Amino acid sequence: MEFHVVDKEEATPDDTRLEDLSPQPLLTRDYELRPALVYERLRDRHGPVAPVDLLGVPAWLVLGYRESLQVLQDDDAWPKGLEKWRARTEGRVPADWPLAPSLEVNHVLIQGGDSYRTLRTAWDAALRPFQDPRQPQAKRLKAAVTGYADELISLLGQGGRTGHADLSAQLSRPLPLMAASHLLGFPGSQGDDALMDMWRILDAGPDAGPALERLLVTLTELAAAKIRKPGDDFPSHLLAAHPDLSVDALARELFMLLGMTSDHVGILISNTVVEVIAGDTEGGVRTALSAGMVRETMNRVVMRKPPLVNFVPRFAAADTPLGNHVIRAGDPVWVSSAAAHADPLFAAQMTPDTSISSRAHLAWGAGRRQCPARELASTIAMAGVSRVFERFAHLELALPVDQLPWRSSPFMRGLRSLPVRYELAGPVPAMPAPTADEAPETAVADVPDHAAKRRSSLWRYLAGLIRSNG
Ligand code: HEM
Prior knowledge:
Low-confidence stretches: 1-8, 281-285, 432-454
Helix content: 40-55%
Mean pLDDT: 86
Bound molecules: protoporphyrin IX containing FE
Shape: globular
Structural class: alpha+beta
Strand content: 5-15%
Number of helices: 19
Distance between the termini: 49 Å
Number of strands: 12
């Protein structure tokens, strides 16, 4: 079903400059706890496009569904590329702006201009073998992810056939990272340490700075190794499609892949598991879910709770009316998919029947720059969720659904933890044999303590969670 946007009456837009509107901070405690309420207040006050303060820097937040599409579908009028940001060129963006580290790494998600187009074409080509289910690379990836999910569930089960677990820390977060490590073609256990560093960066804790430095060094070494000796992995396919990429440029793209995969896919897995459990009228007992049902639930979840809530900024190419304001050339514009999905114009068309609005939602973006890895991300998430409902005989939330803890950043929103009570189907499993793509020194042994010694920081961390399981 197509989604139709009706025309509304035109009003004269307000042309007050963004800087002169004294925007209110967006990222408040209220935003952390009740983002929907914050969006509604902004919508009531400013209409579909609101001036906001993002940690000390003014920006436009696009809340309207129609206006979001207008921006996303017209890349010429609303291009990406930080060099187009007037305030930044004029030195009005502080060097220590907390969002600078995420935005100043020049990779495909951030870039605009001609170099972007070549890069995006290369990304599409490099992802293709991993997204086309008929290709051996896609088959191997799916088998590997299913194997990783089994390993993680078996590791968790070492705490007992029944018990408590944090399915976020023990499954949803590590699984996509392991998938990313497979895609990146990391040799040995080096990948696991890089994955732990990615977490430290995403959690923005005190060790985030050194972790970023270490990770960029590791990814640069990986990029150089793939240039010297290509394999059948994403970096090598990207290089084949874009042979001019320098070592540093390739490392930045790998960083982007790791970041995107780790957080967003993990959020999707957790949210889907919650949706299935909470939607189960029989109190959380699951029997096998069909692949179709899992996919259907995931579609609904991604639309209701998009992992990427606000997109990286675009910039007005010329003074342009949008919503009730005139956006000046070079002003930053952040599309908020979460707010756009709550726009009455969009929300009114949604029904509990998921498939109806799934084509119109913005969770994967829209227009030329929409996510090129939708199928890949869904496949990884599907494999994880499917194994959960096959391996657990009983799964219920350890907290009421409305008390689950959430974490937000300016870009994403996901569960901080997913506490569950579980019962595994069948006896406590021995740890599975190593999957085909694991080097012998990283193989998982039959008891977690041995595994912890043999594997890297990721495995030690996960084994530590079992002991604290009680
Ligand atoms: C649940 C997981 C994911 C979600 C919800 C998601 C969502 C999105 C969205 C909304 C955009 C558009 C952003 C914008 O317009 O500014 C995007 C872009 C992008 N995504 Fe994803 N994504 C996910 C997973 C992934 C993964 C796993 C990868 C890589 C393997 C990936 C690679 C990219 C790239 C390269 C772009 C930039 C495209 C461009 O600018 O041309 N995404 N993603």
